[in-house]
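Long-time lurker. I teach an intro course on protein structure, and each term I like to show students one example going from raw sequence to a predicted 3D structure in token notation. This year I'd like something fresh instead of my usual example. Would anyone be willing to generate the tokens for the chain below so I can use it in lecture? Attribution to the forum is fine with me.
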Amino acid sequence: MLKSPLSIGNLIARLFNRTPKNKMKPDKIIVGLGNPGAQYRATRHNIGYMVIDELVARYALGAPKRQFHAQTWEMQVGGKNVMLMQPTTFMNLSGQAVAEVVRFYKLDPKRDLFVICDDLDLPVAKLRARESAGTGGQKGLKDIVAKLGGQDFPRLRIGIGRPASSSQVVDFVLTSFRKDERELVELAVKDAGDAVLLWLDKGINDVMNRYNTASNRER
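-- Reply from a regular --
Happy to contribute to a lecture. Here you go:
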């Protein structure tokens, strides 16, 4: 007797040994980009991770599950099932985790995915949301675009500043924020957590209207 063909989702799960461990099918995926490991925890490149940590603490979500090449948490907000995700593939391969979960659950990136990352071209702690845009050289975003096959997904960039010389960028993104920057960054992370909740409730246009304006908390 012939077996029925495997679905794409089940095939992916079998290939990567990533049978879903979450109890619910997510309606929305929130991805914070960064690098795994304690040595990277407080670095500029990990500000996306910091926003996920903020939401985990805010909702007392506890320990993560390990699936889809990521750490994940589940929560319900406004009647929506939400998965929080920190890819563990390192920044340059972030798209591997994102594409895997999006395709497994057959989600629409334009409607169901929200990505949070650092931005060298914004002042420290400045927030900027976009419905769809280029990658601006951010390698995690670049890999997500490549793996999804398009750039049409909402994202929130958080400024980390830029070093004096472009030759210092690689080292700069892996440094911690200076003491005089930390208070602003902590406020920005909380604002970014609020922006996630606003996106879940109202959508990306409301996030852009609130957080892209010059009147938004001057930093």
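Some talking points for your students: Residues 127 and 191 are 8 Å apart (CA to CA). The chain has one domain: 24-211.
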